[in-house]
Amino acid sequence: MRLLLLPTALIILLGACSPQSPAQPGDAQSSSAPGAGEVPQAVDLAGYWRVAGIDGAPFEASYGIALSADAQRIWWEPECARQYREYSISGSRFVAPARSNDGEVVCEIGYPEELPEIWSALEAADTIERTPENGVLISGNDRSVLLFSQ
User: CB neighbours of 90 closer than 8 A, spacing ≥ 6?
Assistant: First the structure.
């Protein structure tokens, strides 16, 4: 009888030593939300964007304003209009220094009347974050621009 218990005990012990199955989506262990003290991942602004709001008000004109961005600049097409801002992102911190087109040769093209307000809001902003709707909110100093990916 004692010899019969030994193999049974070994099987039970080996089962306890086997690796656990990976966490399934929705398990508490697999949560991707940052924990206390973790720095949120920086928002990647590179891509194509639609302006959805300026200074907290929805942008509801009969036309849209599209912006493009790379890792250092955000601009309105055509590039010859020289309508852009350089920016930097570190965590949730956003910086877009003011710039002027004074003295620059630019193509003669009309641009949306809201564009100066967008640049002004970006210059005033100090924070960038994802919204629950998966937009990007750039805000600070009572100014804001809400963008959605195109």
Answer: 42
